[in-house]
Each structure stands twice: as structure tokens, then as C-alpha cells.
């Protein structure tokens, strides 16, 4: 890696000193220390002690003694190295470290926290991907905002991200919708409320099908007509897609989400037949009866085309084609992957899809490899949003529309900012930034793997560990800098930042590049959210403890103003990476 920040250089120094004493150690072995431990960095020596047949504490004491008696460090105060249980503890040299952190920031303030880990490689991120003719519900929120945040984060980490919105505009559900519209559809209602009306028809189909099994056969026939190019089926389907995309684009604009490409499943239609034939010819796929685990979607006794995956450790095969020649989601997904590999030549394919698809993505990755594409496939899983009474369900009509959530959040925020001294237009814009920021942060501040129970108060909280709290921290920093004249002196020594609260804040700020890289490596935006919250908390503690504008000297005032500026850059950049806007005033 070309860009090494101060904390990385300190970890490298610690690892090099330990290796010089004969103990294998790399930078990733050196951990940050939080809490009551009197140290900044620590190296666990348990494994090395076990390999040497020694007690961990004795080995740590021996290493600490050697380091204290050896030459001094660049960023570490090696004279204060200690041992505690099985850990070797290091302290940073506060003067050298403060100077290094400030120098890192000053080199390129606009790129604070950036890295070149991606080295310009391409990564395709599949996210949002709503289904046409269904409303954009709160259930679509997680894939959309997690995917957009990862796009931003990976770009900041030196990757070349390509966002692809893989619209669900094909498949057997359209046979059901076409069947429902043919039976009960009204053109006037479609024109008045396109996605809402199509959604109601979809729900009605499933209710009626419980009493009339012929509906399912009729729906399969409608999808067959769609696949072979029947004029009526195609014309209606195209209208449903166009109306839905218009609604989706409006929601994306409200959320401040922009995805690079929107290519629906139907875009890959001409690739499906050749893919199946190629898989059969290569011996990757074969024709046989569907397994019992496939469920009632397939006709008993009739052969399908499937890819066996038992040799890859997956008992359930991946089915590519039904007995009537109809494609499945997996067929279209594999064709999509091949197109992406041909067009963008990515080093990695990333899919932001819920936890329940874990088996499918194991199957998909294995099948793609069998087809000759040895590219890493990452399933960025997340827990679904559910209502207190159960999971969201479009079939049962149990959904919360995302637009309603956005309106509610912005409305609550508008009430909060009603007494601000600004124009009504500025209040509206502030309410939009605060309300939508609150929705996104409520999602992105949590570990993505957890299931989320929909809770209006939690999702729209405007205080505590929330976007508004962090937005206010940025605005507060900007206000301090405006009062200082926005042009603080640069002729000061960062070593002046010697108060305990200052040391804590500098260490916290120095960890921002680590948080960004960790989020990019693990595909977990909450690592940035958590760091921003802790930074805002440490900043508040520092600002309450020491005078900034009223500092004892001009040089100390300038040093502290630099901390204000660096705090604003850290939290502001973190929020923007999460896709959350930062207002000028609050």
C-alpha cells in the first residue's frame, strides 16, 4: 500500500521491533486498545508462547524488558512498553504522533482517510434490485442504502465500483400479474396509481389462487406467452415496466441514491438459451427430474435442466430450466454475471441481498466457477426488516411503503427545525437532510447481518446515536471555524495538544482511515458509523474541557482550531461515505 497513515506506521514500527527480537509479527497482529488499559496498541503473544512451550505472561515480560532497554522509536515511546497477562502493550509518543497525524491530514485535506487498497481494480455491486410492478417498500431500504454506501466506501478505498440495479422485470410473477390483469384489470385504475394498483392485483391473484388452482396454470401459460413474444403479453409487460421504473426513479431521487446502471433481468433474455446449451454441452448441467426439495413449482415426473453441486459440497442442485423450457432466476443471474464479466472485467462480484439467500449464493458461486469463471463472488448479506407481527410480504399485502417512511421522517424533522432562524425553503431542505439522514443512519449504524424489527421511533430518532447528532457535530465545527475567521494559522506545533482530552481526540481521529478500510474489507458500513459517533462524543468531551477560541496563546488557539477542522473533515467524510448529507447550518 502506498499511503500509510500515522497509526499504520506505528503498528508497522511495533511489528518490526518485535520481529527484530525473533518473534514473528505482522502489522495486522497489532491491535488498537480501548477502555481502561494504559496503552495505545497491543500484541497478543499467546500463540507464540504456546509454540515455544512458555507462559504468555513470561514471554510478554521478556519482550517488554528488551524493548525498553533498546533504542527509542519514531512514533512509539518504547521506554513505556509493558506486559499485561499475555499482551505486549505499546504507548504512542504523544509529540511525534500528534505531528504525524496533523501532517497526514495537511498533505491532502480533501482526501483524508482515502486509501489505494483497491489499486484501481473494478468491483461490480448488485444492489437495490426491486421487482417491477410491486411498490418500493421499506423492505427494499436495506439493499439500497447498504449498496450505495459500499459503492461510496469502495471508491474511497481505491476501487473502481460499478453499481448495477438488477431490476426484477422477468419471471413467473409476471405470468401471475398478466393473468390478474387479464381477469380483473382496469385501465383507469392503472393510470391513476400504477404500482399501487398492480400490487393490489398481485395480492388478489394469490388470494384467489387459494380457491382456484386453475389460476396457477393460467399464470404459467401467460409467462410462456411472454417468453415466446406474444404481442399482447409483451405490450402489457412493457407498460408495467415503464410505469414502475418511473416510480423507482422518483424514490431514488428522494433518497439521494444514484446507481450507475439499471439493467433488468429481461436485458439478458437472448443469453439464456445459449447459456443452458453451453452448460449441457460442457457436462456442467444435465437433464433429470427435479429433487423433492425444489418444491411444487416444478411438474412431477418431468425433467428439468440442473447443475449438480454435490462435488462442491452443496447437496441441492441449481436448476436452470423448467420442463417447459422456461428460465428461472438462477439462469438469468448467471447470464447477468457473464455479461458483467465481459463488459467490466471486474476483480470481484458483490451482491447486496438478504440473509435468506445464503444457500442460493453458495450455489451460484459454485455454478459460475463450473462454467469457467473463476472470479470471487461476495454475498453481502443483511437481516430483513420485519413488522412486529411478522415478515413483510407482498403476497399477503403486508408492507410499509418507503415513500411513507420518507414523508414521516422529513415531517418529524420539519417540526424539530420549525423554530430555526432561516427561510422556509432552507427549513425544508434542512428537514430533508435530517429526516433522510435519520432513516439511513438507523440502518447503516447496525451490523447488517441482524434482522431489524420496524420501529418508527428507533428509525426516526433525531437524537443520541443518530445522523442528526453527527450532522449537528459537523455544523458546530463549522460554526467555530466561522467565528475564528475560517483562516486559522498554520504556524504552530501540534505538540501543544497535550491535554488528556486532546490526546484521546487525536487518537480517535487517527483511527478514521482504519475504520474506512475495515468497512471496505468487510463490506460493513456500520464500522464508519460507529467511528463517527465515537469521534463526535470525544469531540464534545474535549470542547467542554478546554478553551478553543479563548486559548491562552495564538499558537495554541491555532492548534486547537486544527483539531476542530480535522473533526469536521472526519465526521463529514464519514457521513458522506454513508450517503448522508451534511447541512451548512442547523
Compile the SSE list and pairings:
Elements: H1 6-20, E1 31-32, E2 41-44, H2 46-52, H3 56-69, E3 82-84, E4 87-90, H4 94-107, E5 122-126, H5 141-156, E6 160-165, H6 172-184, H7 187-192, H8 194-209, H9 214-228, H10 231-255, E7 261-262, H11 269-281, E8 286-288, E9 304-307, E10 318-321, H12 329-344, E11 348-352, H13 358-370, E12 377-380, E13 385-387, E14 390-391, H14 402-416, H15 424-444, E15 452-453, H16 456-459, H17 467-483, H18 500-510, H19 512-522, H20 526-545, H21 554-577
Parallel strand pairs: 5-6, 5-11, 6-7, 11-12, 13-15
Antiparallel strand pairs: 1-2, 2-4, 3-4, 8-9, 9-10, 13-14
Helix pairs in contact: 5-19, 6-8, 6-9, 9-10, 11-12, 14-15, 17-21, 18-20, 18-21, 19-20, 20-21
Structural account:
The protein is of the alpha/beta class and 586 residues long. It has three domains: 6-92, Gyrase A, domain 2; 122-374 and 381-391, HUPs (Rossmann fold, 3-Layer(aba) Sandwich), CATH 3.40.50; 403-577, Orthogonal Bundle (Isoleucyl-tRNA Synthetase, Domain 1). Helices cover 52% and strands 9% of the residues. The protein is built from 21 helices and 15 strands. It has helices spanning 6-20, 46-52, 56-69, 94-107, 141-156, 172-184, 187-192, 194-209, 214-228, 231-255, 269-281, 329-344, 358-370, 402-416, 424-444, 456-459, 467-483, 500-510, 512-522, 526-545, 554-577, and strands at 31-32, 41-44, 82-84, 87-90, 122-126, 160-165, 261-262, 286-288, 304-307, 318-321, 348-352, 377-380, 385-387, 390-391, 452-453. A five-stranded parallel β-sheet has the order 7-6-5-11-12, with helices on both faces. It has a four-stranded antiparallel β-sheet with strand order 1-2-4-3. Strand 5, helix 5 (141-156) and strand 6 (160-165) form a beta-alpha-beta unit. Helix 6 crosses helix 8 (194-209), helix 14 (402-416) crosses helix 15 and helix 18 (500-510) runs antiparallel to helix 20 (526-545). It is globular and about 85 Å long. The mean pLDDT is 92.
